[in-house]
Amino acid sequence: MANINPPDGGGSDAEHLNVRHRVARPPKEGLAKDIKSGIEEMFFHDAPLRDFKDQTASKKALLGIQAVFPIIGWAREYNLKKLRGDLISGLTIASLCIPQDIGYAKLANLDPKYGLYSSFVPPLVYAGMGSSRDIAIGPVAVVSLLIGTLCRAVIDPVDSPAEYLRLVFTATFFAGIFEAGLGFLRLGFLIDFLSHAAVVGFMGGAAITIALQQLKGFLGIKKFTKKTDVVSVMHSVFKAAHHGWNWQTILIGASFLTFILVAKFIGKKNRKLFWVPAIAPLISVIVSTFFVFITRADKQGVQIVKHIDQGINPISIGKIYFSGKYLTEGVRIGGIAGMVALTEAVAIGRTFAAMKDYQIDGNKEMIALGTMNVVGSFTSCYITTGSFSRSAVNYMAGCQTAVSNIVMAVVVALTLEFITPLFKYTPNAILAAIIISAVLGLIDIDAAVLIWKIDKLDFVACMGAFFGVIFISVEIGLLISVVISFAKILLQVTRPRTTILGKVPRTNVYRNTLQYPEALKIPGIMIIRVDSAIYFSNSNYIRERALRWLREEDEEAKAADMPAIKFVIIEMSPVTDIDTSGIHSLEELHKSLEKNQIRLILANPGPVVTEKLHVSKFAEEIGDENIFLSVGDAVAFCSPKLAEQQA
Hints:
Blueprint: E1 2-4, E2 19-21, H1 31-43, H2 57-68, H3 71-75, H4 80-107, H5 112-117, H6 121-129, E3 137-138, H7 141-152, H8 161-184, H9 196-213, H10 215-219, H11 230-239, H12 247-269, H13 275-295, H14 327-356, H15 362-378, E4 385-386, H16 388-396, H17 403-419, H18 428-439, H19 445-454, H20 456-471, H21 474-494, E5 498-503, E6 510-512, E7 525-530, H22 539-559, E8 567-571, H23 580-595, E9 599-603, H24 607-615, H25 618-622, E10 627-628, H26 631-646
Parallel strand pairs: 7-8, 8-9, 9-10
Antiparallel strand pairs: 1-2, 3-4, 5-6, 5-7
């Protein structure tokens, strides 16, 4: 169907017609189909069942099993070449994870064996269910600190070690339920509410907090604060300066920290030497343990790990609180720690998948991560996730599949069975040095600078999380980051960008006059673009902003002796949706403009908006002839009308 636009000159509309296409009303699909398409777009945007189409029943069953256990798919194509890469990478990350696990367990206020337990069972579960080829599973510094801080606030690990351990297992169980539940219900998009800027700030603050916590072992301090904020920690450090520091401990810690950092520098300069920083922690443990043993430095005040139980993971399902006063605390702590663990793992998985040009399914990853933590809670493990440092080493070592996790788990199991007694004389200072060297990589100054350059509000979220962690506590820093992230979303929803458009010379293109100063405003016509859906939360703002634009443009026109505004064109291409409040706001705007003999024109509304404009009768109210396919069409219609009015 076509309608007519009058050209310049007088006469009736019918005498001056240019063909123009009407904005088409989308075909009605019915309520059920609308709901179905909405649900599919929200929860099944990746079309997870597309591979099942036109398949036999047996093939569908196989694909269903393969969807839960991806190992069934890639195992059929496994060969000796891939095994070689996985074997080398698995052994490499095992040499890195063993000393880290012992240190991270202490960070969580647990015996060192629980760190090793957590690098045995969970990686095996993930290898069967995970879709990432590169991620290395195990305890990580930030989650260890988080679980240790939150659980210690409920139960003192020194006074009630058995109850504390049960709470940790309970939190791990519910973290797994939370993660798997998000994946099963396809609610993975919820973790995206923790913005990249907030994560950068939180991780940086947590890294500094973790490093400061290691001063206890690094300096040989026996009495140390239980708080994590920087003020309390530094007060505790300087309070012990005169009589609590042990010079032998400091010498051991500083020497091996320097060695590990130099090894990292070598690996960074020459990627072929990736194995140097990977084995440096294990070499440090071996050498420092031997040194303490032959010199009996533990008799001189050097604190050591002492006894680590031999044997693989004992069953711990009976230790989980399924009732009682600690159940709700376990659920709360598990939810918080699970969210952080999930965010870190999915981010790492996506990073390495992009580097190798393959896809991971975020929801399947969540199910895999959740399942491994549930199984881990049954087998004396605490919360595990993807480790960025180990995953990076895994990637550089040439891993091909998740078999590298299996190799690492086997090495850890052998360590638990046969080697743990050798760690008896490992000094705590070396564990502190290993953790400090590991968390320094979490402080991403370049990312913070880039965030500042790109978006100042993002930088506020970043710094809010950072300072919240280091000056108050880890959980408060996390809360601040979430609150600021939500505040930013609310601000963008309630105060969307609206701009004045002008015509770019020698084109029929209309653009933001601030971005394109050469763009010319059309005399007597004001063109506004709304860069957002119009909802109840922003509809009044958009109406008021449009009227304010109108007053300002009229004042400018009057000062320049130009025609007053007689047409207001709203460019609606970016308006993806509109609700009842939005329609009502447009009606009020239309009435306000009519009182001032100004005509409201809509340009290029999308299908959803167009349908709602017709259903609400607003399209009839302003007239179909005032709804155009483009701003150019609308201006072409308004210009001769304006000329007629001025004649």
